């Protein structure tokens, strides 16, 4: 190999031969704000298929800085860092010269909702391939200038070079190169060996500001002339406030009362006087909303609710298989809160007939549609801009507070309005994660193998994310009120309440039934992982119970029923790293293991826990948590570890101690004193996550893969430690069954 070729390989910028038809010129490739529907190009990967024009994703400034546009949002998962890594590597530019604009309805592609651990799968794939296209396009421009073949050129540090002393920067080339062209499907990404950033633990770009107290969140926004607001509502969902608005107008610090039907809010220059007025308004002036039905006792009440049943999977590979022992078990979880650390907040400005809302919603595009209907405004006169929220994920109060502030801002043209819910409103009004119940039955044959499996799950919908005005709290309070979108199940393969109800294991015969409960006496919506949390808890707890019945080691029992080699590798890696075969139990201390592939097409994750129960205190101590994860190609391994570590801690809190209280008429938890979450003192003593990187394979998504396996691993460890099995969450307070 020549020295020049070798040097180009090291640089990673050597261009390989291509044969392309001329690129078709397009209009502009932006999001909804660019005008007109997108041109679908099914041959392109990820969301690039929906928005195929390169300038929808990447633009190069005269100073050479690269701006990346994505319709997905940063929720503390590190996706901004991963996106920057992808573009910097594919374009051969320094990561410090890459800027990201995320989820702005006037600037970014409409990528829907950021959910389901699909950001890299959809948007990451799009920006990586768009960057590869831009790099080649700029090289072709340089080749045309110099009268050489593009394949003789290479790129380095934001420039195209020919190896003979000629160099053209991207800024120079972009000045005469239109990126308003359709991406080409056959442009390969950079060779694996030539990547400098992908696969390496690059420091998170979003953390410095958060760790040093600089403004990071929508809560921190300050605009010139901004006023503050507080919304007036009863103590919780299912109640109505009947405030004395005349008295509120006389309160010190209240400059204006905004009323639209039953919706009411107070506005003033400072927050504290509004908080004091809010407390006065709330004193005894609320009534129960008679339109909200009483909640039946949970979880058994789920079995009595109206249901729409569907067999979502069935297999009869061996109808003649004979079992000799049949086991059954029932598992359930209560309603759970999102419990955002920072109460929901939004800022809005209504000016010259246009509305801008800064929001921590995960779906700025559908939120814009809902607000447009709420205000009876053309959707193209509304702009929703994502700003991070403190502790925000899933469908919490972010969308509702955005709808609230939009109504207030419309009543105050030209004045920026900041609205933050109180802690009590956050706990009392955010949509809850649904209560769920699963029944699992299985039959073992004489050799201890599972020959028949039946899983049934009962659940409400797992998404009431706003797509219309009736899906916002304010939409139900204006007069006349808007009608909420009817709840519906999320179809497989992603699923909602039945997410991960279909086992990845191979059983000769199985039937999976989803009982969708359309009636919702409590407002519910997307909580991280949706139904995977309960379904994996049930599936993997039952696998342990069956292993005990068969006299088999739980890890070996799982491996005997799996035929996916990547699944088997993750199971073995977690068990080996934990030291499963060397573990020695002690009094009230035991080990637990669980595995799942999120949605059966996302990341593989296995978790092993070493847990001790302190009988006199009712406390659980997690001495060690060990996980292995296969997310496909790992863009930032450290970011993946962050997500799995966070998922383990969150799931331990959900599974062990969390439950949203309800007295049948309304919620009973309004702050952290009555809704417990895991404290630092109860966090795992040690957490270790091994990332199995598979370069060149598709991104699988990591964000929600650990919640289900952790829940089941905790249940299995407690059963091993105490000799009793808890099948009802929260496990620290459940009624155990002797093993």
Instruction: Give the strand line-up of the largest sheet.
Output: 9-10-7-17-14-15-16
CATH superfamily of the largest domain: Aldehyde oxidase/xanthine dehydrogenase, molybdopterin binding domain
Roughly how many Å is the radius of gyration?
27 Å
Major beta sheet, specifics?
Answer: 7 strands, mixed
CATH level 1 class label of the largest domain: Alpha Beta
Write a concise keyword list for the protein shown above:
739 residues, alpha+beta, Aldehyde Oxidoreductase, domain 4, 3 domains, seven-stranded mixed beta sheet, five-stranded mixed beta sheet, 26% helix, disordered N terminus
What can you see in these coordinates?
With 739 residues, this protein is an alpha+beta fold. It folds into 3 domains: 202 residues, Aldehyde oxidase/xanthine dehydrogenase, molybdopterin binding domain (Aldehyde Oxidoreductase, domain 4, 2-Layer Sandwich), CATH 3.30.365; 163 residues, Aldehyde oxidase/xanthine dehydrogenase, molybdopterin binding domain (Aldehyde Oxidoreductase, domain 4, 2-Layer Sandwich), CATH 3.30.365.10; 269 residues, Aldehyde oxidase/xanthine dehydrogenase, molybdopterin binding domain (Aldehyde Oxidoreductase, domain 4), CATH 3.30.365.10. A hairpin with a 2-residue loop joins strand 9 and strand 10. Helix 8 packs parallel to helix 9 and helix 15 crosses helix 16. The protein is globular and about 75 Å long. The N terminus is likely disordered.
In short:
With 739 residues, the protein is of the alpha+beta class. The chain is built from 16 helices and 26 strands.
């Amino acid at each position: 190999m020549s020295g020049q070729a070798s040097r180009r390989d090291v640089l990673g910028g050597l261009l390989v031969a291509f044969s392309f038809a001329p690129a078709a010129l397009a209009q502009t490739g932006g999001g909804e704000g660019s005008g007109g529907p997108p041109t679908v190009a099914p041959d392109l990967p990820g969301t690039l298929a929906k928005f195929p024009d390169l300038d929808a994703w990447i633009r190069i400034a005269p100073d050479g800085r690269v701006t990346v546009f994505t319709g997905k949002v940063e929720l503390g998962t590190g996706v901004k860092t991963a996106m920057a890594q992808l573009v910097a590597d594919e374009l051969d530019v320094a990561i410090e010269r890459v800027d990201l604009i995320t989820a702005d309805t006037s600037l970014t592609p409409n990528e829907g909702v950021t959910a389901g651990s699909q950001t890299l799968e959809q948007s990451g794939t799009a920006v990586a391939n768009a960057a590869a296209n831009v790099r080649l396009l700029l090289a072709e421009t340089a080749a045309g200038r110099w009268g050489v073949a593009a394949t003789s050129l290479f790129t380095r540090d934001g420039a195209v070079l020919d190896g003979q002393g000629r160099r053209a920067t991207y800024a120079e080339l972009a000045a005469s190169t239109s990126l308003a062209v359709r991406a080409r499907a056959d442009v390969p990404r950079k060779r694996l060996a030539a990547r400098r950033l992908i696969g390496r633990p690059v420091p998170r770009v979003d953390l410095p500001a958060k760790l040093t107290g600089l403004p990071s969140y929508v809560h921190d926004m300050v605009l010139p002339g901004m006023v503050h607001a507080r919304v007036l509502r009863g103590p919780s969902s299912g109640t109505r406030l009947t405030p004395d608005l005349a008295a509120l107008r006389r309160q010190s610090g209240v400059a204006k009362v905004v009323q639209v039907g039953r919706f009411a809010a107070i506005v003033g220059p400072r927050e504290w006087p509004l908080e004091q007025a809010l407390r006065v308004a709330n004193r005894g002036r609320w009534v129960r909303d008679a339109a909200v039905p009483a909640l039946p006792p949970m979880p058994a009440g789920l079995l009595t609710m109206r249901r729409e049943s569907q067999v979502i999977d069935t297999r009869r590979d061996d109808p003649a298989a004979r079992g000799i022992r049949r086991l059954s078990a029932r598992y359930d979880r209560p309603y759970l809160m999102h419990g955002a650390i920072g109460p929901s907040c939004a800022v809005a400005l209504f000016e010259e007939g246009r509305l801008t809302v800064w929001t921590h919603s995960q779906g700025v595009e559908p939120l814009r549609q809902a607000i447009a209907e709420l205000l009876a405004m053309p959707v193209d006169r509304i702009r929703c801009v994502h700003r991070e929220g403190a502790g925000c994920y899933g469908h919490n109060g972010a969308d509702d507070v955005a709808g609230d502030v939009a109504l207030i801002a419309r009543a105050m043209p030209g004045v920026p309005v900041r609205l933050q819910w109180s802690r009590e409103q956050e706990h009392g009004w955010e949509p809850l994660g649904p209560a769920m119940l699963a029944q699992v039955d299985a039959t073992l044959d004489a050799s201890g193998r599972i020959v028949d499996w039946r899983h049934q799950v009962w659940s409400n919908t797992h998404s009431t994310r706003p797509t219309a005005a009736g899906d916002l709290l304010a939409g139900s309070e204006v007069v006349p009120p808007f009608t909420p979108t009817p709840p519906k199940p999320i179809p497989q393969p992603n699923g909602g309440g039945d997410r991960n109800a279909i086992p990845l294991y191979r059983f000769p015969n199985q039937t999976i039934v989803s009982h969708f409960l359309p009636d919702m006496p409590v407002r519910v919506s997307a909580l991280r992982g949706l139904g995977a949390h309960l379904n994996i808890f049930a599936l993997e707890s039952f696998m342990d119970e069956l292993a005990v019945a068969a006299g088999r080691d739980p890890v070996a029992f799982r491996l005997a029923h799996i035929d996916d080699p990547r699944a088997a590798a993750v199971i073995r890696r977690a068990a080996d790293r934990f030291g499963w075969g060397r573990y020695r139990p002690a009094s009230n201390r035991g080990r637990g293991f669980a595995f799942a592939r999120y949605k059966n097409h996302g990341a593989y994750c296995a978790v092993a826990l070493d847990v001790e129960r302190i009988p006199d205190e009712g406390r659980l101590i997690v001495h060690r948590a060990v996980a292995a994860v296969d997310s496909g190609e790992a863009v930032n391994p450290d970011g993946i570890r962050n997500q799995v570590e966070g998922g383990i801690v969150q799931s331990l809190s959900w599974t062990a101690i969390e439950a949203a209280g309800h007295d049948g008429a309304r919620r009973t938890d309004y702050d952290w004193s009555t809704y417990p979450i895991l404290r630092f003192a109860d966090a795992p003593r040690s957490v270790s996550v091994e990332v199995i990187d598979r370069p060149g394979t598709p991104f699988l998504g990591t964000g929600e893969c650990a919640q289900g396996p952790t829940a089941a691993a905790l249940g299995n460890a407690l059963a091993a430690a105490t000799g009793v099995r808890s099948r009802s969450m929260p496990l620290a307070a459940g009624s155990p069954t002797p093993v």
